[in-house]
Amino acid sequence: MRIIIAKDYKEMGKKAANIIASQMILKPESVIGFATGETPLGMYKELVDLYKAGSLDTSKITTFNLDEYYRLSHDNPQSYAYYMHENLFKHIHIELSRTHLPYGMCEDIEEECTHYEEKIKNAGGIDLQVLGIGRNGHIGFNEPDVKFEARTHMVELDQDTIEANARFFPSMEDVPKQAISMGIKTIMGARKILLMASGAEKARAIYDAIYGKITPELPASILQLHPDVTMVLEKEAASLLTIVQGKQTREFAV
Ligand code: GLP
């Protein structure tokens, strides 16, 4: 596992964008797994800047998002589809038919999940999966006590996650309680993983994900078993790690 510590949120976004850009440069037809939330917003802005500066060809990539709220249509401003369109897709040259998110308005959940997995498989699998992390250590919407064997599936959101997401909705009642998420097995199938985290409220989850025991109670801990994980951490999110290291290291491997 490679840990890169950034001095602030902006630097975290830049470093993560550079890693994604390198992937696209080395393999223009890369399959990229994208994440949503506040953490990657700066990274998307940096990617758009790289594209506008003419340094990035995004025309051949295929994308799969980690998750989507259940029963939010793609044109709902709180949906992750809307987020991706606003923060990335509408700013770059990309074939929209090659961008994918689970469809929260589907009629048959089972069929939607199976179909999503098939599409990932048919695209050749995910080359680089971007992840954020929940305060409770969730990745995608794989909440504590997740089954490590699960692929894309319907999830019931934890109270902690519902509360954390409430900031994006007019009231608590409007926050979706269910979502469709890639499973841990889907995420672990990606050839490379890039996890980003920012803010002191993520420090404990990051510490446990790296040094804690591998347990479904902390879904991100499974990443210890993945052969190619890079974490780009804003220094507050890494604050417990530097104490463990005993010095202010900027980059290290565990
Ligand atoms: C949501 C998303 C996750 C994201 C997490 C953290 O639950 N499903 O993919 O990593 O929130 O979000 P934020 O970056 O806003 O802290």
Walkthrough of the structure:
The chain is of the alpha/beta class and 254 residues long. The chain has a single domain (2-253), classed as Rossmann fold (3-Layer(aba) Sandwich). It contains eight helices and eleven strands. The model has no long low-confidence stretch (mean pLDDT 94). 2-amino-2-deoxy-6-O-phosphono-alpha-D-glucopyranose is lined by residues 35-39, 66-67, 132-134, 140-141, 161.
Amount of helix:
25-40%
Shape: globular
CATH architecture: 3-Layer(aba) Sandwich
Distance between the termini: 6 Å
The number of distinct helices, counting runs of at least 4 residues, comes to: 8
Ligand identities? 2-amino-2-deoxy-6-O-phosphono-alpha-D-glucopyranose
CATH topology: Rossmann fold
